[in-house]
Amino acid sequence: MAGHSHWAGIKHKKAAADAKRGKIFSKHAKFIIIAARDGGGDPDGNLGLKYAIERAKADNMPKDNIERAIKRGTGEIEGINFVELVYEGFAPAKVALVADILTDNRNRTASELRKLFEKKGGTLGNPGSVTWMFETKGVLEISQDAIGEDDLMELALEAGAEDVKPEGSVFTVLTQPDDFTEVQTALRGANLEFAVAEIMRLPTNTVRVENAKDAEKVMTFISELDDHDDVQRVSANFDIPDEILEGLDL
Q1: DSSP designation for 98
Q2: Mean pLDDT of all residues in 193-198
Q3: Looking at the DSSP assignment, which residues form a beta bridge with residue 166?
Q4: How far is C-alpha 171 from the chain's CA centre?
Q5: What's the pLDDT band for 250 if we cut at 50, 70, 90?
Q6: What's the DSSP call for residue 161?
Q7: Cα(130)–Cα(213) distance, rounded to whole angstroms?
Q8: Which pTM was predicted?
Q9: Residue 31 CB partners (closer than 8 Å, separation 6+)
Q10: CB 49 within 8 Å of CB 85
């Protein structure tokens, strides 16, 4: 998780800025549409939809937008057909990354992302070339000021979490994806707030980037990739010291 907590914080700040122009809402709408399409429009019976709605609400997406996206997914109102894709490759400094994509035009997306990789010094990989370096987990980060480690460990493990790790000023709770919502609900029921609450790909090994110029190239590339309208999530295996991350203007 080295470096990723700070990157998650950067992404939350970016999401707040994006929300002002509706960009983040568009990404959430796609998640909701796909979840409702695949599992139905009832979040109580569709954990994927429930999670998508939770993420949208965390970014203050209006209720009407959420309900409209659900109806598009279930076919109650006409919508766009989205395709789920996974792009794999490397950022500068040989940092491995995976981009989860939702697009209504795979040819356009392929052309735009290929240009972005070429322009920013990245390299596209073949399917399966990078995903094996990651595992999908639910991640919940809680301030260490909010609860003691033993109390959190007992609460989280009882709710179905895999592990609780102290990292810097937070505790990181890890879950299997299917257990994420239940654990989140249990911790929220104990009046705990989350600095991060996401299902994400976590690297099984990391690439240390200690040169500030290389770090800037890596993070600028990942930030621009993350900003693309069709990119829903970017996962990468960088290990950049927090003091370097904090000095970058992203």
Answers
A1: E
A2: 87
A3: 171
A4: 18
A5: low
A6: -
A7: 24
A8: 0.80
A9: 52, 55, 56, 102, 232
A10: no
**Tokens at residue 49, please?**
């939809």
How far are the Cα atoms of 28, 80, 136 from residue 85, in angstroms, in the given order? 16, 16, 16
Query: Distance between CA 103 and CA 81 in Å, rounded?
Result: 8
Whole-Å CA distances, 153 to 143, 147, 216: 14, 10, 36
CA 238 vs CA 4, 89, 130, 199: distances in Å: 8, 13, 13, 18
CA pseudo-torsion sign 194, 30, 239, 16: negative
Helix (H) or strand (E) holding 13: helix 4-20
What are the tokens at 131? 């995903």
Phi, psi of 240 (to 5 degrees): -110, 130
Query: What was the pLDDT predicted at 3?
Result: 44
Which strands sit side by side in the sheet containing 196-203, from one edge to the other? 163-167, 170-175, 134-143, 196-203
* End-to-end CA, the chain: 20
64 closest CA partner among 14, 40, 104, 29: 29
Of the ranges 54-58, 161-165, 226-230, which is most confident?
A: 161-165
CB neighbours of 89 closer than 8 A, spacing ≥ 6? Answer: 96, 97, 117, 122, 123, 124, 125, 129, 130
Q: Locate tokens 């879950």: which residue?
A: 175
Q: Distances from the Cα of 161 to the Cαs of 92, 129, 172, in angstroms?
A: 34, 29, 11
pLDDT (average), residues 37-57: 89
Which long-range CB contacts under 8 A does 145-150 form with residues at least 24 apart?
145/169, 146/192, 146/193, 147/171, 147/190, 147/192
Return d(Cα 114, Cα 109) in angstroms, integer.
8
